[in-house]
Write a structure and sequence with these properties.
By secondary structure, the chain is mainly β. Helices cover 0% and strands 47% of the residues. It has a domain of 55 residues. The protein is built from no helices and seven strands. A hairpin with a 2-residue loop joins strand 4 and strand 5.
Length: 105
């Protein structure tokens, strides 16, 4: 039997963490990796999404819609074109970036 640790989030939420799911202390690196980020509001921006074109998943193919230079672009095999109204409500996979964290240099 192992203990379930309950932590308090800065915004009042309670977060349960299972010590068994964390790596052993010997494997945790101190001072390595990306710098710590203070948890903020967690605002995200949509970078792109994958959607399906075709009558069903057995027929058709997948395409990528990405934001480039403030506008949407569709990547459809060899064809790359501006997308005036991308089908954001029909995506299978959405790609987000946290907006309140500086982009890596």
């Amino acid at each position: 039997m192992h203990k379930l640790r309950v932590c308090h989030h800065p915004h009042g939420a309670r977060i349960a963490s299972d010590p068994a799911s964390r790596p052993p202390r010997a494997l945790r690196r101190r001072g390595a990796g990306p710098p710590a980020v203070a948890d903020g509001l967690g605002r995200y921006e949509l970078l792109g999404f994958i959607s399906h074109m075709g009558a069903s998943t057995a027929c058709g193919h997948y395409v990528a819609h990405l934001r480039r230079g403030g506008r949407w672009v569709i990547f459809n095999d060899d064809k790359v074109a501006a997308s005036a109204q991308p089908p954001r409500d029909l995506g299978y996979l959405y790609l987000f970036r946290r907006a309140d964290v500086p982009a890596p240099a």
